[in-house]
Amino acid sequence: MRFDLDGEGATAAHLPRFQRAGIQARRLSRLTYVLGALGVIGLVISLFVDLFSPNSLWTAVLTNSSASLLVLVSALQSAQVVALWRARVIAPDETATSPEEPIAADTQGWYDRLLTRVGGAGTSMVGQIGAPVFWLAGWALLALISISMIWNLALIGTNVGLTGSVVGGLLLLIGFGLLVLERQFSNESVASWPEAEQLAQIARLTIGTLLIAALCLFFSSADRVWPARLAVLIGLLPGLVAVELLIRALLSIFSPRNERLEPRLVASSFGAGLLRWPPRPLTALQNELHNRFGIDLRQIWAFTFMRRAFLPVMVVIVALGWALSGVHEIPMQGRGIYERFGKPVEVMGPGLHAGLPWPFGTVLPVENGVVHELATSVSEGAGAEQTLDPAEGPPPPVANRLWDATHINDKSQVIASGSGDKQSFQIVNMDVRFVYRIGLDDQAAMAATYNSADIPGLIRSTASRVLVHDFASRTLDQLLGEQRSDLAADIGSAVARDLKKLDSGVEILATVVESIHPPAGAANAYHAVQAAQISAQALISRERGAAADQANLAQLHASVAHDQAAANSRETLATAQSADLRFNAEQQGYAKAGQAFLLEQYLSQLTQGMTHAKLLVLDHRLGGTSAPTIDLRSFTLPVDPAASPKSAEQPMAE
């Protein structure tokens, strides 16, 4: 209960917490200076490290450790303010001020004097809000900003070497000192030091952060990623507590301040109070509600009933969950082998199936028709993560099929060779792939599950043995001259027979010989053979094209001549038919009209013939009784020019 100086019968001197307030204030002051200096030095060192090695493990470890120390410093300084108030109540002469008077300017620090200058002497922000609130908000905000600046979960492993072990040892040494301090706080009674329990809780938070940071340094290496990620994640502990302290500092601004009433510790953390063993979050929440708001959940019958019924309900839920473990769901692309007491009973198809709960009944998953492709040889880089190449980008390196390129799935084989009358051997590289699946019947599913632990390894070893035996009796000429489909069929049938003998339950669907790479010398010779074959095929194709061109051109000329003759004959026939029709029509017209038809035809022909002629019409009435005279000098004579000329003027009678 908080002590009020204006209360009746108030005797603060008889209370243990007031009697030891001076010692507690001096002790908290020394701890604040020491831990605050360590926290600030750690932040400065982390800034220098970040300049030379950004986003490194050192930055995360030093920053999070310093932030946890600053959070503890903020709590210690807040508790020191409460202890100083109690000390002034017991011995006002020793502190040179009374509880009603503000702290003298010469006894204040630079931060307190700066806050005092923000307002007036009587209405300053320090007087209205209180310097402890500003101190608490400043420390919490500094810790929160430091943690947010180094938050990066993409850090890689770092080899810290001997320096990491030394720094980790220093962190453990600081943590051991804080552990001693935490034990002292925990042993304090509530009557002698009420704030000791809250300080012990925040000290546990700092100890845990330092311990995890030291472990990250001890186990850090270039091939380990989890120490770097954990070094960043431990910042959540001081970060969450710093956010809570900052919120409490902001909310305390709206609380009225009474210098005659004993202050309450502002830097109490609910999150830090959960760091205890065994964890009791419900009890901590219940005590917090009872202390802050006066709500006692123990008086509510519903919560009491829930607490009593929690264990039997949990037992029923666990039993029901254990019973439901006997219900198995098998997907459409899978099957399941049901084992009862470790003995296989049946093969289940897709759907829901019920059986005995675990561990009396289990279901082993088996593929149902899933097709796989397996290469006979895989290099070390084949197990790396495959990246998707863009459709419009450059082709991936795996698409390179030149003989001088390295293929990850090529396997070297020894084949027979002959040079003259000598026998030898040659090495060729080939890429042979098998398309397989587990058989669809129940017996194949049982065999694939219980007869082989590694189906791809079994197929690869069997295929290697078959390839060695098959290619040992082949020469390079036979290998290159044989059809690839026939070669793949022979290899696939041999591998299928061996797998059937082993009762593996594997079904070979197809065998594909992707590529065959002969030796360098044979490759060059085979290149020449292929070039000659390609040249011959190109020449044959060129001659065939020329022959087709000539045949098409002759066919075109013949077609044009035939079409022209047909058109001419059709035109002549049409002209004859038209003349025949015109003749028949004229006969019919003459038969019906007689001389009138002839006159009409005459006039029509005369009109048609004189359409473009130059006419000179003479009237017989011109000239009176004398006949008109026509001057023919402007017309060309239709006679031979060598003949004798005639008179240019001739009389014309009427």
Short characterization:
The chain is an alpha+beta fold and 654 residues long. The protein is built from 20 helices and eleven strands.
* Measured distance between first and last alpha carbons: 164 Å
The helix-and-strand class reads: alpha+beta
Residue windows where pLDDT falls under 50 for at least 5 positions: 94-107, 118-124, 379-385, 402-406, 644-654
Question: What is the overall silhouette?
Answer: elongated
Largest sheet: 4 strands, antiparallel
Q: Helix content range of the residues, please?
A: 55-70%
Beta content: 5-15%
What do the pLDDT scores average to? Answer: 78
Number of strands: 11
The rounded Rg comes to 56 Å
Number of separate helices: 20
What does this entry look like structurally?
The structure is a single chain. The chain is α+β, with helices and mostly antiparallel strands. Helices cover 55% and strands 12% of the residues. It has 20 helices and eleven strands. It has helices at 16-19, 21-52, 57-90, 92-95, 110-117, 125-128, 131-149, 161-187, 196-218, 226-233, 236-252, 270-273, 281-293, 301-324, 442-450, 455-471, 476-481, 484-501, 520-593, 595-609; strands at 327-330, 334-340, 343-348, 351-354, 361-367, 372-375, 411-419, 422-438, 506-517, 629-631, 649-651. The strands form four sheets. Strands 6, 7, 8 and 9 form a four-stranded antiparallel β-sheet that branches. β7 and β8 (422-438) form a beta hairpin. α8 runs antiparallel to α9 and α9 (196-218) runs antiparallel to α10. The longest helix is centred in the last third of the chain and has 74 residues, at 520-593. It is elongated, with a radius of gyration of 56 Å. The termini are far apart. The model is unreliable at 94-107, 118-124, 379-385, 402-406 and 644-654 (pLDDT under 50).
